[in-house]
Structures are given as C-alpha cells and as structure tokens.
Specification:
The complex is a heterotrimer of chains A (298), B (332) and C (305).
Chain A lengths: L16 H11 L1 H18 L1 H4 L36 H37 L1 H16 L2 H12 L3 H11 L2 H15 L2 H8 L4 H37 L11 H9 L7 H28 L6
Helix pairs in contact in A: 2-4, 2-12, 4-5, 4-7, 4-8, 4-10, 6-7, 8-10, 9-10, 10-11, 10-12, 11-12
Chain B lengths: L4 E14 L2 E14 L3 E5 L6 H9 L7 E3 L2 E4 L2 E2 L5 H7 L4 E4 L13 H10 L6 H14 L5 H4 L9 H13 L5 E5 L7 H17 L3 E6 L2 H7 L2 E6 L2 E7 H6 L4 H8 L50 E2 L4 E2 L8 H7 L1
Helix pairs in contact in B: 3-4, 3-6, 4-6, 6-7
Chain C lengths: L1 H24 L7 H6 L5 H11 L5 H13 L13 H36 L4 H15 L2 H15 L15 H27 L2 H9 L3 H38 L5 H10 L3 H29 L1 H4 L2
The chains are: A mainly alpha (298), B alpha/beta (332), C mainly alpha (305).
C-alpha cells in the first residue's frame, strides 16, 4: 500500500537526542573555545614546575622590572620581571594554580552546601523550603566583598582561609537554582510513580531527582567557579586575600599598580590572563547550558 | 460575481526556510470569499490553515516566503500593499480572532484600554466616543455590566469572557472580513457552542465575511457556506458546505468525516474511523498528492501533478476520476 | 496588595534582624576581640584592660542586644581609629557612595535596556552580537583591573579625565562606567530574554492584528511587560553595586563608604566595619523591598491579588 521508496516517506523521523547533542556541541563555538582555553590553563597549572622558566619566588635585585620581549626585553624573561626581579612568566604560570585551585575548591564547598539546601527545599517544601528561602535572603543581603574582606582580615590571609570564606559565601546561586530545578522535577509523574512503588526518599533523590538536575548543577558550578576566581583576585588586589609572596594574579595587578604610569604591562598582563580564564569558564558554562537545555537559553 | 468578491486568492504558496532545506508549508491554494459569506478552512494541525490566514493578514513571521499569482482584498493588491497600507487594513477592514483567549490579551492593560486602542488606531474619534463604542460592543458580545468591565484586567476574566472580549475587539471598526483561527478550541465544551453561535449571529447581523479555521467538522457543518479542506499544505477539496458533506469526493475528506460520530448513522459500539499513518515531511521538493502515503487507494500516478477535478463550484484534487469512491464502495 | 506589602515587610525586618546578628558576631570570629584590638605586642594586662573598657567580658548576647538597641537609635558606637561616632563618619561618606551607585545603575540601565531591546528585536544581527560580546566580556572583566585600564587610557594617556578623587562630576565618570558595566550584563540579558519571550506571545500578534505600528508594538505592548522583572533585577544589582563600591572606590581613591570600609578593615576598626556591613545590608534589603512593591504595582496580576 505505502511505497517506502516514495520521497515523501523519507526522513520523517528526526535524528536521535544523542546525535542532536553531538551536533549542538560541535556547532557551539563558544563552548569549544571555553573548553579549549580552560583545558590549556589546567594543563599549565598541573605542569607548572616543568613549564616555568624560573623559580617564581626567586628575587633578583639586579634584574628588576625588565620589559617583556615585545617591549624590547630578552628571552631570558619572556614577560619581563616584576619590582623584585621575579620572572613574570613563572609567576603567571604558578598563579594559574592559585586561581584554579581557589575556584575549584570554593565552588565545590559552596556547591555541596547550596545543592543540599536547594534540593531539600525543593523536595520537602513547607517549613524546610521556608527556612532555606529565608537563609538565601539573608545571604544575599550580606555584601560579599565586604564580609569576605572582614573575615579574611580577622582570620589572617592564607590560601585556606580565602578558599573557606569564599566557599561559605557563594552557595546562594546553587541553592536558588537547585531549589527551582528540584521543584520542577519533583512534580513530575515519574517521581510520584517511584513513590507509589515504595521507593525510599534517599533513593528517589538519588535516582530520580539528581540525574534530572545535574545538568543545571554543572552549569552553576562553572559560573560560580568564575565568580570565586574573580573574587579572590579582588580580595588579593585589595591586599586582604592571598598574601605575598604567593603568586596570585590579583596580587600581581596590585603590585604592578604603583608602577602603572611607566610600566603599564605589569598591570595589563596578569589582568588579561585573569580575564581570559574567567571568560573561558563562563563561555564553557553558557555553552553547557545551551547544549544540554537549549530551551533555557537566555 | 466579480463585484461582490471580497477576497480572492490564487496560487498562494508559503515556504519556510529551515535548517537544511525549505519547508513547503502551503502549496498553491486558491479560494474566493464574497461579502457576508463564511468560508471554513478545515484540516489537521500542521496542514497550513493558520499560516494561510496569517498570510492574508500580512502577519507571517520573519523568514516565511509568500508568493501568489493573485491576492486581492476589496480591490487592494495585498501582495504589493505597503506596510502602511497593510496596517491601515488590519484591525479596520480585516480583523482576526485568535485561538488562545488566555494569552491573546495584553496582561498589562485593562480590557477598556485594549478595546479603545483598536478603534483609535483607525478612527480619529475622542476617547469618550471610543469608550462608548467599547461598551456597545461588549454588550453586543453578551457581556453584562460592560461599563464596569472596561477597568478590569484580562486575568480577572474567565476564558469564555476573554474570548468575547477578543471578538468585541475584532469588531470595533466593523470590519468586512473576520478571520477566526480556531476560536473555540481552547474553551470548555459548553462555552464553545455559545461563542460559535455568537460569531455566526454577529457576522450575519453586520454582514461580515468570515474565514473560520477549524479542525472540527461538526462546527463546519453548522455554520459554513463554503468549505476548503487542507491536507499537508494543499487544498484537497473545496465547495459549498452542503455539497462537500453530501458528496465528499477526496479520500482524505471522507476519512475526516468518518472520524466524527454521526447521530443515527454511527452504530453504537462500532469503532470510529481513524486515518492511519503520519503526515509526511514537507521539506524539499514536494510533488503529487501529499496524502498518498496514507491513502488506501494510492497508485503510482499519485506522484505526478494532479489537476483539480469536478466543476467550478465543487472541486477536488485526486488522481481517481471519482475520487476512488467506487473502489471504496466495493470494499464496503 | 496591602497584605502582600505587610508580609514582605515582615520578611525584610526578619532578614535585617538576622543580618545584624551575623555582622555583630563577625567580631568574635577571631576568638578574642580584645586581643585583636590590643595588637600583637600588648601584654596580658593591657588586653584585660581593653576587655573591660569595651565590655568584652560580658556574655556575647548581652553585648549584641546593647549594640542592636543603640544601632536602631542610630548609634553605632565610636570608631577605634578616628575616635569619632561611627554613624557620623558613615553618613558623611555615604554621599559619595550613593552618588556613585545612582550614576552606576543609571548608566547600566541606559545602556543595557536599549541594547537588550535592540538585540531581541533583531536576534543574531550585528547589534545582537555586539550586545552579547559586551555582556560576556563584562561578566569576565575584573572590575579593579578595568578601572586601572580606564585610568591608564583616559586619565594618563589621553588626559581627558582625572584619575582619582571626588571633587567634580568629571571624577565620577570613570568610576560610574566601571560600576555600571558590572551590572550591565545581567540587565541586558534579562531584557533581551524578556523581550524575546514577550515578542513571541499571542498578545503581540493581537496588537499587530489590530493594526498597531512596530514602534507601538515594541514599546507600548512588549516592553511594558518585559520591563517588570528588570525592575527587580536593577534593585538587586543596585544593592550589589553598593557592596561592590569598595573595589571601585579603592581603585579611584573615592573617599566614600566603600573606601571607609576598606580602610577600617585594614585598621581593625571593628565598630566601623560592623556598622558598614549592617548599613550595606540594609540598603540591599530596602532596595529589594521597594522593588518588590514596585513590581507588584507594575504587574496588574499581583496588584489586584
């Protein structure tokens, strides 16, 4: 009756979801760029001792503020040296470690806190939700930079303190997004179905809720990582974050600031690297959202 | 015949560029509409019936390509009319009623504001006159306490009331043509009949022509003068409502008619008809009869271009001279 | 609408109360505020004297309540460093910060809303791409660095604007751009997304079917609906911006409340820091409260419920 060679019968079925995802990832320039740059910087951070031409802490008063190659310097110090004669490229390379470590661990801590709160609020509702929503409101009302600065000042600036403070402060977006996603999922029929066959709450959370909100979670992890990296740089710039002589990009900008009039590259270089890293992480986060949930694109 | 022809459409074609090709959404539609006449366009979702009406209104989305041999409304060539001319026609001489009363009113403005705007866009009258006209029309569409409704917002009204407001808004300037795109689909069954009755009464009273777009053949039988049946972007059958219902000539039309139960004719317990298969993809070159993938009488000849058969009044597009009606009787 | 306002007000007060407790307890994070205040070289007796002088020897909750009741009356105690009432110090400095905040949010709205609308009207056009680029770059831009670059270019190289200080309106141009650009991406994205959604809605088609022109459709019918969430966001951003003014003020040496906060933190001036955290939080709470009320008033669905 129907003729399968008829052109009208061809291609009525679309591509599979997996094919669609693959196609979207391949076609998403932003995502690919972001992943590329972040991946590169992660490798740089891991292999910093192999890549850095000099010891990032070694001072040399004889070779202070030598210009980078493109401003007439020599290849001994490709990006020049700072006011203490430390090799700028080496400090930049080790600085990637600081930024990425702070970003990743702070996002991990705040992610655990925020996700637990958000999922609990969205799943249990009622009083739990009221309390979590209230806590989110309180947290949002506190000025992040100010509180972080004050706490770091009181406890003393070290890598651990900065990571801890940021981790304990940046959970708000996790809680907001995870709460909304869980609310959405918890109302679906398959959750009711799981409950009706007697699945336990932890089981439902783990097997029904989590897999459906994990896409959103990954997106927020990347965006908050970028947020934490920017905040650490700001704290260090203000002198109340990571303390010298640790190579932090924010600190490098701060140290270069005084010589900005004559040697603007001291400020430019660490700033550009910081900007690129945050940009790449954001591109990755936006890209992940686009390809996993194109309907939520904003 | 030419003098009282309000709308004339010849060979209307709509193409939508999509990733990797062109969606041939509407292909070669012809129809005429006289003053005061009701034409019903029938077809399942995706058949191009809504696009056809939007093409007449000049409200097609960006990127949709419209072409036609002729498309005239009250002597105006719609194909060449300027944007300004189209704006002047829309809402004044031709108006449209949409399917979703819940979302087709602006939530930020009162009913009164939106009704009055419809008049003020086309008539230089004072606000008071416009207001009076709004009250008059709200009463006409059967809304009580019309005066006090003007200050209400859409969310304060029920779906049925909103659709009455949408109808009142379309009629503010007494248009010559109203296009109603599934005006009752989103409403409760009990309200559907009321709204439909209202539309029909008002078009008679104001001597307006109406294009009623629907997938509900029961509705068509009650109100339409003429019927146009669309399938996958093509007109498969067209003619006076009585004639099409009496002697459905295209296999698709007959399939549609079998899908609705008829009191006295359909036996209790007998399965209702369905049309097996799915609508084909319309991307790329589409030739011949699009229904052939689901038609029980399909023959190789269905792939060729098929001319309209029948007479000037009642036509159908089928490769079988009799629309395969004899073959169908044999099976039965 | 009144019940909504009252409920919202209750929430705001409760949040304010909780924040006040947290900002007060920050003082005790170090374990012994007296020791911190006395400095590393102080003897045990000195610390003890300071402890009694400032009343640190009493239970924390008593100290908190005392501080809170005084704060409600506008008394935040005396600055350890300036030896002046904290309230007066902050009031004096807030003028600069408020000016900066208002300029910043205005700059952000005036650039982000038109850009967002234009981007939504023509998706994937050049202007959409420019808007997207600006917002992606803005989100990744460290504001302290952006400020320094602006100083290098516009103050030092070109000499058009002063690099620091707050003596004239010209001093506020660069800080306004830095602070405004911080809030711009979020507002732009929300405007664009809101407009895109609204432009696809049925009532826009209805407006066109009535014969309304494009300008009328865009501004009277679409923007009026899309702007409602933007109002909330602008209020939230304004709150964040005041909190973030600490960075901008330190870069441009603008002696506002943010600068005061930075100085006070560095000087261990705890009463001033506590008061500033509370004041900045209050601004956020008041702004978001006003925004919610304004929002309810703008949205007929909420106004009548």
């Amino acid at each position: 009756m129907t003729d399968m060679t008829d052109p009208l019968m061809q291609d009525v079925q679309g591509p599979s979801p997996r094919d669609l995802l693959k196609r979207r990832v391949k076609g998403h320039l932003g995502l690919l760029t972001g992943v590329g740059i972040v991946g590169l910087l992660v490798l740089v951070a891991i292999f910093a001792p192999l890549l850095a031409p000099h010891d990032p802490y070694a001072q040399s008063l004889m070779t202070r503020m030598e210009p980078p190659v493109f401003l007439g310097g020599d290849w001994e110090h490709p990006l020049g040296t700072d006011h203490l004669g430390r090799d700028y490229l080496s400090r930049l390379i080790y600085g990637a470690r600081v930024s990425l470590l702070i970003g990743a661990v702070a996002a991990l801590i705040s992610g655990v806190i925020g996700t637990a709160m958000g999922v609990a609020a969205g799943y249990f509702g009622g009083k739990v939700d009221a309390v979590v929503t209230f806590l989110i409101n309180v947290r949002l009302a506190m000025p992040v930079v100010l509180v972080a600065l004050a706490v770091v000042a009181i406890l003393g600036g070290s890598l651990t303190v900065v990571i801890g403070v940021l981790g304990l402060l940046l959970w708000d977006r996790f809680a907001v997004v995870m709460r909304a996603s869980t609310l959405q999922v918890a109302r679906r029929d398959y959750v009711a179905a799981a409950r009706s066959i007697g699945a336990s709450t932890p089981r439902i959370l783990l097997t029904e809720i989590m897999p459906n909100i994990v896409n959103n979670l990954i997106v927020i992890v990347t965006l908050e990582m970028a947020h934490a990296i920017l905040l650490e740089a700001a704290l260090s710039f203000l002198g109340l974050g990571v303390q010298p002589p640790t190579p932090s990009w924010g600190l490098m900008v701060s140290e270069g600031k005084n010589m900005m009039l004559f040697e603007p590259w001291l400020v430019l270089i660490p700033g550009i690297v910081l900007f690129l890293l945050v940009l790449a992480i954001n591109l990755m986060g936006d890209g992940l959202r686009d390809v996993t949930a194109p309907e939520n694109r904003s | 015949m030419t003098d009282d022809t309000l709308l004339k459409v010849r060979n209307l074609t709509l193409d939508i560029p999509v990733g990797g090709g062109t969606l041939r959404a509407v292909r070669g539609i012809d129809f005429d509409l006289k003053r005061g006449e009701t034409l019903s366009i029938v077809g399942e979702s995706g058949s191009g019936k809504s696009l056809t009406s939007l093409a007449v209104m000049g409200l097609l989305g960006k990127g949709i390509k419209r072409s036609a041999d002729e498309m005239t409304f009250e002597g105006t060539d719609l194909l060449r009319a300027s944007k300004r001319k189209m704006r002047a026609l829309r809402g004044d001489r031709m108006a449209m009623i949409f399917q979703e009363p819940m979302t087709s009113l602006n939530p930020a403005y009162t009913i009164g504001d939106q009704l009055i705007e419809a008049l003020l866009l086309h008539r230089s009258v004072g606000r008071e006159t416009a207001r009076a006209r709004a009250v008059e029309l709200l009463e006409k569409v059967g809304i009580t306490a019309a005066e006090s409704r003007l200050g209400q917002y859409p969310h304060q009204l029920s779906g049925g009331l909103r659709q009455r407001v949408v109808i009142a808004m379309a009629l503010m300037c007494e248009p010559d043509l109203v296009i109603a795109d599934e005006p009752t689909t989103a409403l409760d069954v009990t309200i559907q009949a009321q709204i439909l009755r209202l539309l029909v009464d008002l078009t008679r009273e104001m001597n307006m022509a109406m294009i009623l777009i629907t997938h509900d053949l029961g509705v068509v039988a009650r109100v339409a003068d003429k019927v146009a049946v669309m399938y996958a972007g093509e007109l498969v059958e067209t003619g006076p409502a009585a004639s099409v219902f009496e002697a459905p000539s295209h296999p698709y039309t007959r399939g549609l008619l079998r899908c609705i139960p008829q009191p006295g004719k359909t036996e209790r317990g007998a399965p209702l008809g369905t049309i097996p298969g799915i609508v084909p993809s319309l991307i790329g070159e589409v030739s011949g009869c699009a229904f052939r993938t689901r038609c029980p009488h399909a023959v190789p000849g269905c792939r060729a271009a098929i001319p309209m058969r029948g007479d000037d009044v009642h036509g159908y597009r089928c490769v079988h001279p009799d629309g395969a009606i004899s073959a169908e009787r044999e099976i039965a | 609408m009144l019940p909504f306002i009252l409920k919202r007000l209750g929430l705001a007060l409760l949040v304010a109360f909780t924040v006040s407790f947290i900002s007060f307890s920050l003082l005790f994070l170090s374990g012994d505020p007296a020791a911190a205040l006395a400095g590393e070289t102080a003897s045990g007796e000195d610390i003890e004297a300071i402890r009694r002088l400032y009343g640190f020897d009493r239970p924390m909750i008593v100290q908190y309540l005392e501080w809170l009741f005084a704060a409600v009356r506008g008394d935040f105690g005396e600055s350890y460093y300036f030896k002046l009432p904290v309230a007066g110090l902050i009031a004096e400095r807030l003028q600069v910060t408020m000016t900066l905040g208002v300029c910043g949010i205005s700059f952000a709205l005036l650039t982000a809303v038109p850009l967002g609308v234009a981007a939504a009207v023509r998706p994937n056009s050049i202007i959409d791409r420019v808007a997207l680029f600006l917002s992606v770059a803005g989100q990744a831009m460290p504001s302290f660095w952006f400020g320094l670059i602006l100083i290098v270019v516009f103050a030092i190289q070109l000499g058009w604007l002063p690099p620091s200080g707050a003596d004239s309106w010209r001093h506020f141009i660069l800080p306004t751009i830095v602070l405004g650009y911080y809030a711009m991406p979020a507002i732009m994205r929300l405007t664009r997304a809101g407009m895109l959604e609204v432009l696809n809605s049925d009532f826009i088609r209805t407006a066109r079917a009535k014969g309304a022109g494009e300008g009328r459709v865009m501004f009277k019918h679409a923007l009026r609906n899309a702007i409602i969430p933007v109002v909330s966001l602008a209020a939230v951003q304004m709150g964040f911006m005041l909190g973030g003014s600490i960075v901008v003020e330190s870069v441009f040496a603008l002696h506002g409340a943010g600068y005061l906060a930075w100085e006070s933190i560095a000087r261990n001036d705890l009463p001033t820091v506590q008061a500033l955290i509370l004041v900045f939080s209050m601004f956020y709470i008041v702004f978001t409260f006003l925004a919610d009320v304004l929002n309810a008033w703008l949205d007929p669905r909420m106004r009548s419920s």
